[in-house]
């Protein structure tokens, strides 16, 4: 079994010597603006990714959507979750909120300020 003292410096050296172009994903999965939240979640789960660029009808990148964005769509004030987590144990209420959110469209998350 390899000792952490051996592989950790090697990993750090490797990361410091690489360029992003060498490790980036070239077959990017993009999501169209206007896609329903439920479909976005399905795409992220199916492809085992945590986020994706959002494109308009012309293929231009207009934003990025992540798992965190979807979480905030279901729980707009996520600070409440951390301050009063017991309020989120009502699973029937959570299910109703999730049902409402899945019909929302992605454009709401990708607006530029």
Q: Which class do the helix and strand fractions yield? A: mainly alpha
Low-confidence segments: none
Mean pLDDT, to the nearest integer, reads 79
Number of strands: 3
Helical percentage: 40-55%
Shape: flat
Distance between the termini: 51 Å
Instruction: Output the strand order for the largest sheet.
Output: 1-2-3
Helix segment tally: 6
Please state roughly what percent of the residues sit in beta strands, choosing from under 5%, 5-15%, 15-25%, 25-35%, 35-45% or over 45%: 5-15%
> What is the subunit organization of this protein?
single chain
Query: How would a crystallographer describe the biggest sheet?
Result: 3 strands, mixed
How much is the radius of gyration in Å? 19 Å
Order of helices and strands: HHEHEEHHH
What would you note in describing this structure?
There is one protein chain. The chain is mostly helical. The chain is built from 6 helices and 3 strands, in the order ααβαββααα. The protein has helices at 4-17, 20-23, 37-46, 67-74, 78-83, 91-101; strands spanning 31-32, 51-55, 61-66. The chain has a 3-stranded mixed sheet with strand order 1-2-3. The longest helix is centred in the first third of the chain and has 14 residues, at 4-17. It is flat and about 50 Å long. The N and C termini lie far apart (51 Å).
Short key terms for the protein model shown above:
113 residues; mainly alpha; 3 strands
In short:
By secondary structure, this protein is mainly alpha-helical. It has helices at 4-17, 20-23, 37-46, 67-74, 78-83, 91-101, and strands spanning 31-32, 51-55, 61-66.
């Amino acid at each position: 079994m390899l000792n952490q003292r051996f592989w950790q410096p090697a990993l750090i050296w490797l990361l410091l010597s690489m360029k992003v172009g060498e490790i980036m994903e070239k077959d990017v999965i993009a999501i169209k603006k206007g896609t329903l939240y439920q479909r976005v979640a399905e795409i992220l789960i199916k492809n085992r990714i945590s986020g994706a660029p959002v494109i308009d009808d012309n293929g231009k990148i207009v934003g990025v959507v992540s798992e965190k964005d979807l979480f905030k769509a279901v729980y707009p004030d996520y600070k409440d979750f951390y301050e009063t987590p017991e309020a989120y144990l009502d699973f029937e209420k959570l299910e109703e909120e999730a049902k409402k959110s899945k019909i929302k469209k992605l454009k709401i998350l990708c607006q530029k300020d």
